[in-house]
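User: Okay, second chain of the day. Same drill as before: sequence in, structure tokens out.
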Amino acid sequence: MQAPTKPPQDGQIDTPLLGRSTGDRCTTSVLTRLASLLHRMRRMHDVLRIQREPVEALILDTDQAPRSLHRRLATFNHMRLTPRRDALDWEARIKGEYALRLLEGRFVEVERRQVRARAEQAPRDPDAFVSWFEGLEQNGPGQHDPLFEWLARDATREEMTWFLQQEMAGEAGFEDLLALTQIKLPTQVKLELARNYWDEMGQGHPSGMHGPMLERLGRELGIVADDNAVWESLALANLMVALAANRHYAYQSIGALGVIELTAPGRAVAVSDGLKRLGVSGEARRYFALHATLDLKHSATWNREVLRPLVAQEPSVATAIAEGALLRLQAGARCFDRYRRVLGVSSSSPAVAESRDLS
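Assistant: Same drill. Structure tokens below.
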């Protein structure tokens, strides 16, 4: 008696009569490829089920609405930036990109409206603009947040691990953002971004590459990719990719990347101190120890070789660069506020305010 045939799995085609001869095996191979294509198209269809709510509501309303938005954009960014071996479904992907890029653009435009007034106050004289930009280290959104003093002095290993899990979820890959941003920029600017990129790549040495350094820290702390990232972390990564991947936001990307170099050292020192206090190995905490010093140099050269010549050549770009810096700082401040609420850290001091649930 013949055994009952199992129903086909999702993304598979039931072919009980195939594979009985050499000629049929060719047909099986074709059908397998078609099944794979159908499965990928179903995945893209899932990504495209976009809520028909105003984008302002998706971003600013409940926690679930922005969480849905930014998980979709995070999936989209992974799909569009990951190399592929074939182009079988290129038409479906382009059609899918259209809807998601509209959603991405509307998200960015909502963010831009929130910083536009301050960005328009940035001076257009090159030296005055650089001075204004450097002032963001003190007066920019989210600067010197009490979260970081608390991480340095009081956070437990579990709390530090949760924080770093969120930070890694918001990490879009600085070297990739640099590579996307530098396209068709003036020579002096392009060269500075290239030098910065080379440092990110460990100057050609795998052990010195910054991305793998962060991964080593994650491995020592047992951090794994999962669904526990808060939407604010995903929004930060989605914002950075949107600015770098769209040429109409190229100057905003320059401002956003530059302000990371400007403001990261102080936070990196605090995290490195906290990791050392918790007994994390020097090799694992090397990423933050390095950025505590290297970004000081990067910031100075960025301001001199990128910001000043761009504003000198075309003063009108000052507003867009300022906008990008404020966008990045605003997104970071939103993360810090959420982290403090989850971790029970007071907004005015590093003291712990309440019990925490990190599950």
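Residues 90-119 form the longest helix (30 residues).

User: Thanks, on to the next one.
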